[in-house]
Amino acid sequence: PGDAAGGGSPFNTVPPSLLGAYSKPTLSALPSPVVTSGGSVTLQCDSQLAFDGFFLCKEGDEHPQCLISQPHTRGLPRAVFSVGPVSPSRRWSYRCYGYDSRSPYVWSLPSDLLELLVPGVSKKPSLSVQPGPVVAPGENLTLQCGSNVGYDRFVLYKEGERDFLQRPGRQPQAGLSQANFTLGPVRGSHGGQYRCYGAHNLSSEWSAPSDPLDILIAGQIHARPSLSVQPGPTVASGEKVTLLCQSQGWMDTFLLTKEGAADAPLRLKSKHRSHRYQAEFPMGPVTSAHAGTYRCYASFSSNPYLLTHPSEPLELVVSGEGPDPVLSELKGSA
Description:
Blueprint: E1 12-13, E2 18-22, E3 26-30, E4 41-46, E5 53-59, E6 65-68, E7 78-83, E8 92-99, E9 106-108, E10 114-116, E11 126-130, E12 134-135, E13 141-147, E14 153-158, E15 165-168, E16 177-183, E17 192-199, E18 213-221, E19 226-230, E20 234-236, E21 241-247, E22 253-258, E23 266-269, E24 271-273, E25 276-283, E26 292-299, E27 306-308, E28 314-319, H1 325-333
């Protein structure tokens, strides 16, 4: 909507206004509220009322400054503003207001506050998930963002979303800080890639992003692969085994999980063999750490965060850890 763009206008001082004469518009950042340092972003103000002009006001400065969109004739209740270049050392918080050009000093209620997140270079926090990265619909997940540099607040951002979650940090012990983000009951829309950021209260600067964490939602594809093991489910320590995940219908990727492990699942592209799609996960030489319950899932590349139902569980038993060194020594001296 070219005639709604006010991005080129200089900042104007806020005129005296009568707030609240109209209901509030909605302000969003496109494509994302997370903006790279030095980059620009488009802020879009939408309303259900037919305003023909909008103000975008930056908050947090001593004197609020506003951009004005040009009134237009098509009655499209939307304006877009370009903001940038942005830097991590300042806070970038905005609200927008709608007005009718016939009474430009009467403004709507303000939109909810929109804060842009500009990652800095301070130490990245860690991001982990309990009970694990693969979750069934209806269950709850807790994502924990933590740091050993004592951040006071954390945000969690899911790639592609228009907003992020913010939580104060708590300190379980000196120097450590963390925040828990509980998601649920989980739906397919929770699947995706997450990152978190930390900041100190006395600074507007956010940290570098954590490493990405993929959350995968099971049971979103109506299929169930099978899982088998060669040469068999009981294996001697030091030997090698292969876990075979198979599907009759086409699948792009197979994933292997181990019960109780918080690590990301192993992923392999599927191969077509003997009228079935499959992936072979080799393991070994095995130790007692490999013992446990395994399941496999499959996914399509069009949405890698949505999985099939799990295979039936497969129990891998590792027998013996090799000769006991103490017993061997006793036998040798006998």
